[in-house]
Each structure stands twice: as C-alpha cells, then as structure tokens.
C-alpha cells in the first residue's frame, strides 16, 4: 500500500514507463489509481522499433507496466514523507460477534438456524427436535 501512496503523489511529475511489449511512454502523470493504472498527459509514445508519436493523453493499465523510470531531479525523500502507515483492524472473534447478535462469516445469527427461528421461540415447533407439541392436553 505504501507503493501506491507513493505513486499517487507523482501527480504532474514527468516519468518514463516501459511496457511489457517494449513500448516506451513518456509523459506527465495525471493520476494513478489503486490498480496501478497510470493516466498521463502530454505523452510521447515510442512503439517497438518505430518513430515516436505525440498524444495528448494516455491511460496505461497497471499489469502492462514493466518498469517506471523517475527523473534524476525527483526528490524521493519529499514524496515519502507523511505516507500514512496502514493500521491493522482487529477482527471480532466469533464469541464477540455472537454476543452482539451479529452473523459471523459462515455462521448464523442468534435467533435462527437453517429453517428459521428455533422451536422454543416459535408457536409451531420445528427447530432441532422435530415437530414438538408445546400445548399438551
């Protein structure tokens, strides 16, 4: 996640990106999303063994990137400052979740089983013990 926050701070910086097919793309970073997709402005694209072509804007899918070349004058220390550390969220154990009536993944909530509410909570019976008559005569 730190890498993505770093790449997102490259807005308006000039970068060179080489793609897996050998294409070299040079331009100013407009934005970067969490899938590492780059959106560049004022782009010069050089396809493998062809002349460079100028384009206004290009979007590059993240999985097609071989590597990114940063300019020598880019201050990496300034970009790395204040990148938020990922905080770990504590998961509730199944006992904590059941005590609050919350369904846990793969489990059931407090008042129901497979066929709905338990027999003792329902007027019809049912539940685990089969159809039991609560109104004995």
TrEMBL record:
Major localization listed first in the record, in broad terms: cytoplasm
Molecular function via GO: RNA binding
Biased composition (Gly residues): 113-130
Keywords linked to the UniProt accession: Cytoplasm, mRNA processing, mRNA splicing, Nucleus, Ribonucleoprotein, Spliceosome
Domain Sm stretches: 2-74
Localization in the cell: Cytoplasm; Nucleus
SUPFAM superfamilies assigned: Sm-like ribonucleoproteins (SSF50182)
A GO BP annotation: spliceosomal snRNP assembly
An annotated GO cellular component: cytoplasm
Entry's family note: Belongs to the snRNP core protein family.
Functional note: Plays a role in pre-mRNA splicing as a core component of the spliceosomal U1, U2, U4 and U5 small nuclear ribonucleoproteins (snRNPs), the building blocks of the spliceosome.
Protein name, as recorded: Small nuclear ribonucleoprotein Sm D1
Gene source species: Brugia malayi
């Amino acid at each position: 996640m730190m890498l993505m926050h770093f790449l997102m701070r490259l807005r308006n910086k000039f970068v060179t990106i080489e793609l897996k097919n050998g294409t070299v793309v040079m331009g100013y970073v407009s934005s970067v999303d969490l899938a590492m997709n780059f959106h560049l402005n004022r782009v010069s694209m050089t396809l493998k063994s062809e002349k460079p072509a100028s384009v206004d804007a290009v979007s590059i899918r993240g999985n097609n990137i071989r590597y990114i070349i940063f300019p020598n004058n880019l201050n990496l220390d300034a970009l790395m400052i204040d990148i938020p550390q990922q905080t770990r969220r504590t998961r509730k154990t199944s006992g904590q979740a059941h005590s609050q009536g919350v369904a846990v993944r793969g489990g059931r909530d407090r008042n129901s089983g497979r066929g709905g509410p338990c027999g003792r909570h329902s007027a019809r019976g049912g539940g685990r013990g089969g159809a039991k008559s609560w109104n004995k005569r």
